[in-house]
Amino acid sequence: MPRHLFFDTPEAFLQELRAQLAAGVPRRRLQAHLPFHLHEAEALLIGRPSRLRYFAMIGALLGFGGGFLLAMLTSLDWPIITGGKPIVSVPPFLLIGYLMTILIGSLSSFIGFLWLARLPSAKTLVTDRPFDSRFVLAIDDEDAS
Amino acid sequence: MNNNIPVPQVETDVLAAMSRPGYAWLTGFGLAGLLFVGALALWAYQIQHGMGVAGIMHPVGWGVYIANFVFWVGIAHSGTLISAVLYIFRARFRTSFNRSAEAMTIFALMVAGLFPLIHLGRVWRFYYLFPYPNQRQLWVNFRSPLVWDVFAVSTYFMVSLVFFYVGLMPDLAIVARHRGGWAGRLYRVLSLGWSGSLREWRHYDRLYMFLAAFATPLVASVHSIVSWDFAVSIIPGWHTTIFAPYFVAGAIFSGTAMVLTLVIPMRRVLHLEHLISIDHIESIAKILLLTSLIVGFSYIVEHGMAFYGNNLFEMEQFRFRAMGHYSLLFWIMITCNAILPLLLFVQRLRRNLIFLFVLGLLVNVGMWLERFVIVVCSLARDFDPYNWGNYSPSLVEIGITVGSFGLFFAAFLVFVKTLPVLSITELKER
Predict the structure, then answer these.
(1) Residues of chain B with C-beta less than 8 angstroms from the C-beta of A36
(2) pLDDT tens-place string over residues B396-427
(3) How confident is the model at residue A1 (pLDDT cuts 50, 70, 90)?
(4) Are residues A58 and A107 in the same domain?
(5) Distance from CA of A19 to the nearest CA of B (A)
(6) Which of A51, A73, A98, B183 is most buried as measured by Cβ atoms within 10 A of its Cβ?
(7) Buried b vs exposed e over B122-143: b needs ≥16 C-beta within 10 Å?
(8) Contact, B103 vs B164, CB < 8 A?
(9) B151 — contact with chain A (CB < 8 Å)?
């Protein structure tokens, strides 16, 4: 069973975290639960940026291409001239592409977040472990043996 | 300012607002609900008897329904400004308003989305607006601003909803901790089992930033696209390049006024005075002043262009607005939107809550009238005098308009009692 240390302030939590790392405790044996995000804790324990950016970028690009193609291909499918505009009217179709960039980019970021953060978390839902208002550092001592 | 409050105190203070509703809440909710039910009945009446029961007819085919649509989409805007743009700029005062402003965005968009449907007449054909494969092999006309509108407003609604929900996730887990029984379990499920692990937080932090970045351009684009419903036509008074920035400024202006209208009483009734400080309200008042100046400047430019240009129809349109059948509404609009907000240059008034509340109401009256003046005046006096005609809304239209405010306020009152009205997590961080 991991040992749980509780802290009321981020300063005390970070001090202990630094002390544990300085004492040679490997990162994989340390788990943190926080009431709000601490960039420093992330830098100390993980040290690499979140991969969420790929989801945002791929979603945004797919949204842009998909939106533009939707407008273009449906117009070509029934090529009727309205308002004297060309069948493939680039400026308004870009607008659809722009809006779909935002929509699909946002949705794919959200889905990517759920995937990367392992949510919904069945473990938390079943075990009823509350979201603590304190800073918690869990140290897995058993791993040392 | 809030750093002295012990951490759990923030939680109890904010969650205290979610206690069992009192008489004031029940009365407000009952009244707002009644207005909404009345509007539904009137809509049913309109569906049964046809669009003849509305005042819109030739030449004014767009009346208060379209004015309401533009008004409510505008109200939504300041929510995104406060939640996304101010987040990116790291404005600390946003924490006092972002949750209620985001909720306001969602509800305003829900109300706004109803009006094109009400205006459609045959509402059961609403899905014709979307591009979907059908037996007639017909697609929507992507060159039409009305289709851009469908995409813009539905994108805006979905992105705002995701943003609102993501902001709520940690707070829902906090509510779950404080509540027992089925309510606690429900909040826990809604929080998706949020535990506050570092893994969750680090991706959450990035997600919030990305969503803010995605939502920020929407602040400028959604109401620009709404303005193109008008500007892309050739009707005098509508066909102008200033419309997009002018509409965006007006949208943020009216939305900010609505934030003040909602937050000032909410702060008092829910005893949140120490969490929503006067300094923060003053910052919102400054946004109101800035956007009022932009709106006032736009009025001058709009009229200046009409009179400096050599277009007879454009000149006549702007003369008609200021001196014609609707001149009273026009001058109320100018007074509420461009003159009264100038009082905000006085610091004492920027910090006077009663003044701000009353000003917020007046600005919303002014902004609603602006939508009305823009929509109706141009149609009532276009090119050919043979084609001129005045419009006044019918009782059905007025009832549905009043009912839309009922829906908005009822939804906001439900929000106040079911979700934390301030972001507890961000308050702790502050």
Answers:
(1) 170, 201, 425-426, 428-429
(2) 999 999 999 999 999 999 999 999 999 999 98
(3) confident
(4) yes
(5) 18
(6) A98
(7) eeeeeeebebeeeeeeebbbbb
(8) yes
(9) yes
